[in-house]
Amino acid sequence: QGQFDVVLASDVLWVLGTWRPLVATARSLLANPKNAEFLIAETGHEQLALPAALASFRAVAESGGLAIDYGDVPLPLVVDGYDAQLVTLKRRP
After folding, report:
1. pLDDT for 78
2. Degrees (nearest 5) of the Cα angle 61, 67, 75?
3. Measured distance CA(58)–CA(1) in Å, rounded
4. What pLDDT, on the 0 to 100 scale, is given for residue 1?
5. Strand partners, 85
6. CA Rg, the chain, in Å?
7. Residue 11: predicted pLDDT
8. Cβ atoms of 11 and 42 closer than 8 Å
9. Regions of the chain with pLDDT less than 70
């Protein structure tokens, strides 16, 4: 717990039931609230489009004590026809 400066994850937001455990895991793994980051590379899916996933996940992340940042511009990558997005989570002090 609390030992990492950077944690990477990919394609983890498409199952809504995992969001709260994901937020709890992110908080527990990040070492320094000011500098440590939990980075998620995410794409949309047929079951949940990326804009809807990001909007809903923001509420879960913030209620779990994390600051969330994602730009309005998707990464210059398309995966299976979906735009990809980098999501950055940080612990709030």
Report:
1. 65
2. 90
3. 23
4. 59
5. 42
6. 13
7. 87
8. yes
9. 1-2, 33, 71-82
CA distance 79 to 33: 31
**CA–CA distance, 12 with 61 (Å, rounded to integer):** 13
Computed from CA positions of residues 31, 28, 49, 58, in that sequence, does the dihedral angle turn out positive or negative? negative
92 exposure class (CB count in 10 Å sphere: 0-12, 13-18, 19+) = exposed
Residue that the structure tokens 């923001």 belong to = 58
Secondary structure tally for the chain: helices H, strands E:
2, 5
Predicted confidence at residue 2, as pLDDT, reads 64
Other C-beta atoms within 10 Å of 45: how many?
Answer: 16
Instruction: Using alpha carbons, select from 48, 49, 47, 67 the residue that is nearest to residue 58.
Output: 67
Q: In whole angstroms, give the CA distance from residue 37 to residue 66.
A: 10
